[in-house]
Design a protein that fits this description.
The complex is a heterodimer of chains A (276) and B (360).
Chain A (H helix, E strand, L loop, with lengths): L1 H14 L1 H20 E6 L2 E7 L2 E4 L2 E3 H4 L1 H23 L2 H5 L4 H6 L5 H35 L5 H26 L3 H19 L1 H5 L6 H11 L4 H12 L6 H28 L3
Antiparallel strand pairs in A: 1-2, 2-3, 2-4
Helix pairs in contact in A: 1-7, 2-7, 4-7, 4-8, 4-9, 4-12, 7-8, 7-13, 8-9, 8-12, 8-13, 9-12, 12-13
Chain B lengths: L1 H24 L20 H9 L23 H5 L8 E4 L1 H5 L2 H13 L4 H9 L7 E7 L2 E6 L13 E6 L3 E6 L11 E5 L3 E5 L1 H11 L19 E6 H7 L5 H10 L2 E7 L4 E8 L3 H25 L2 H8 L2 E5 L2 E8 L1 H7 L10 H4 L1
Helix pairs in contact in B: 8-9, 10-11
The chains are: A alpha+beta (276), B alpha+beta (360).
């Protein structure tokens, strides 16, 4: 039943014009980059880079090394752009699903309440993953066609978006269960995204606080939050072909997903108590 | 329904607690900070300029007809004066003392000491009276001979008298000419010494010309390596003709083209931390040089990709930072090896060096 609700969400997304418009916008951005970026590649070396006719670089160096800053920028754009577009695009899914009339009709069917929320969460995650993967794979394919070097970095960044979006959307779902409002849902998502960016940099930021109570409070508050900017950093490092320690990276991903499921469980607990 | 809500809340508490623990655990360093800048030897730095000035210990040469506008003659560096003046021959200088105190030098010394049964530096110290780790300042290599500068007051040159004929030369020079074997053949190299500051190895005429230049008797000729190019821990010049000779056999045509496009290649290597080399290629034909630069860049990239595919990490490391930068009347080729990669090369060398600490 969870999968059926997830599929319902995807069908509903397909029928929304502005989600199709966002899709079109992403495609347009890819086409613009494809037409504007000229890379003179000679046997695996980047001899010159021109963007809309203006020369960006003139030195000759290995193309995968020369393009590392580009892969870095693309992975950050895919990550943060994907997360922001995801929040905007999915903010009113849950409020629509829980709208008076529709929720009663849904609960009248043989479906458990937790399955409604789990299905919605799964459907939105699939939608965000598909969108980010489209952008990431599109950029990776474009650069492959222009340089002959296949760097899966942008695709990895897209997977990072799906992981980072899990706690964001869980917070959005929780807010909808508390008060059914698309604006509040989007606000909750943005707030958690911003908090996650801060939490990902909590160690250097803590040094800005005076040693003592204020620093301890900051560290205590951010200890529970998912380190979303750290996930973006892992994606960027992989895109740049830089080493990433597998253990801490796996712990970060697992912790982020556990936090998302924890928030989803809070939303389910609240939803179970509601009268419809 | 209330029981399900309570269970969900319990699961939430457990999950968020687990999440906090996992995320705390993930705050270990994610990887080494590898985004670093290589210091390229592209120009003379302040400390190198000070080094150049400190080495000017020879009094200035008198000018035949001084004019009011001309700058007064400045003191000279005896080592640079001793270097050969043949513009068609390669000449490479190693700053031996600076290299010795670089990380690369430390690794090399540890490796040599660690792999030898006896300490070869100590042997040289005892037998020749020269401590190669302290007394040698610079070494220049040319096809005709070698010039070494340093502190050779305690060198046991007297030991050579048994096998050589010693003659004084010029004001302060000495030449040790090995006695010829009766069978004839190529005469063995002579050794010239000047004021305990310079040693010159090569043919007798090479040694004599070097001492003549230092003492001001030789005809004035432009230096192959002018003073302003003496930066980095190794530097030198490769003329196109020398490149052509290097690429003989099946590569003769390539050598000819290289020599015609790049009549002069200037080299600088910085080895104080990472090992970074800059080769400045200049010539008259800008179009030919541009083609050469692009071909070189492409060749390096292919070599790197090939090395990566074959798992040859040493070559891949070396070519990671390789690039060709177009410049006025030519291009520069830059290649660097991060010190971590150098350390990996020396990983299994001199690990049991018992005496290494005493050299530092």
């Amino acid at each position: 039943m969870t999968l059926a609700i997830a599929l319902d969400i995807l069908r509903e997304a397909r029928s929304r014009r502005w989600i199709i418009a966002l899709w079109g916008l992403s495609t347009l951005a890819l086409v613009v980059v494809a037409l504007g970026l000229r890379l003179e590649v000679v046997d695996g070396a980047l001899a010159a880079t021109r963007l809309f006719g203006s020369t960006l670089r003139t030195d000759v160096r290995a193309v995968d090394v020369a393009l590392r800053p580009l892969y870095l920028a693309v992975s950050y754009i895919v990550f943060y752009g994907g997360a922001l577009l995801g929040i905007v695009a999915t903010a009113d899914f849950a409020p629509t699903l829980l709208a008076p009339g529709r929720i009663e009709q849904l609960l009248a069917r043989p479906v458990r309440r937790w399955e409604v929320l789990a299905g919605t969460f799964l459907g939105v995650e699939a939608l965000v993953l598909a969108g980010a993967a489209y952008g990431g794979a599109g950029v990776a394919a474009l650069l492959y066609l222009k340089t002959g070097i296949l760097n899966p970095g942008p695709v990895v960044a897209a997977l990072g978006v799906a992981v980072a979006f899990a706690p964001v959307y869980a917070a959005m779902l929780l807010s909808v269960v508390v008060a059914r409002s698309a604006a509040l849902s989007g606000g909750a998502g943005l707030l958690l995204l911003a908090a996650g960016l801060v939490a990902g940099q909590r160690t250097p930021l803590a040094e800005l606080f005076h040693e003592g109570a204020s620093r301890a409070v900051f560290l205590g508050l951010t200890a529970l939050l998912p380190r979303l900017s750290a996930i973006a950093t892992i994606g960027a490092r992989l895109a740049e072909a830089q080493p990433v320690s597998a253990g801490p990276a796996a712990a970060l991903v697992a912790g982020t997903l556990a936090f998302a499921f924890g928030l989803l469980a809070v939303a389910i607990a609240r939803f179970e108590r509601k009268d419809y | 329904m209330r029981r399900r809500a309570r269970n969900a809340m319990l699961a939430a508490v457990l999950l968020i607690g687990t999440a906090a623990f996992l995320m705390w655990a993930s705050e270990e360093p994610m990887g080494k900070a590898v985004a670093r800048t290589v210091e390229w030897p592209r120009w003379m730095r302040e400390e190198e300029h000070q080094r150049v000035v400190a080495r000017r210990v020879l009094p200035p040469r008198p000018v035949a007809s001084p004019t009011a506008e001309a700058a007064p003659p400045r003191p000279l560096d005896p080592f640079l004066e001793a270097l050969p003046r043949d513009q068609d021959e390669p000449l490479i200088v190693l700053e031996a003392n600076a290299l010795r105190h670089s990380r690369l030098g430390e690794l090399f010394v540890d490796c040599v000491v660690g792999t030898s049964r006896t300490d070869p530096f100590d042997e040289m110290r005892r037998e020749a009276g020269i401590d190669p780790l302290k007394d040698i300042d610079r070494v220049a290599f040319s096809p005709a001979g070698i010039v070494v500068s340093g502190y050779f007051d305690r060198a046991r040159l007297d030991q050579l008298q048994a096998k050589s004929e010693l003659t004084s030369y010029g004001d302060h020079g000495q030449i040790f000419q090995p006695r010829m074997a009766s069978s004839g053949g190529t005469p063995p190299a002579s050794l010239g010494a000047w004021r305990g500051q310079l040693l010159v190895f090569g043919s007798r005429s090479f040694v004599q010309e070097a001492i003549d230049r230092v003492e001001g008797r030789a005809q004035a000729a432009p230096s192959v390596i002018p003073e302003e190019l003496t930066y980095g821990e190794a530097y030198g010049v490769l003329p196109g003709a020398a490149l052509q000779r290097l690429l003989g056999g099946a590569q003769t045509e390539l050598g000819r083209r290289l020599a015609s496009a790049a009549p002069r290649v200037e080299l600088h290597v910085d080895a104080m931390h990472d090992v970074a080399a800059v080769a400045r290629v200049t010539g008259a034909d800008a179009e030919q040089l541009d083609d050469l630069g692009k071909s070189l860049g492409a060749a390096l990239s292919l070599l790197r990709l090939d090395a990566k595919a074959r798992g040859q990490s040493e070559i891949a490391d070396l070519l990671e930072h390789a690039r060709v930068e177009p410049r006025n009347k030519g291009f520069t080729l830059e290649v660097a090896l991060p010190i971590e990669a150098v350390e990996r090369w020396f990983d299994h060398c001199g690990a049991e060096a018992p005496a290494s600490a005493s050299h530092r």
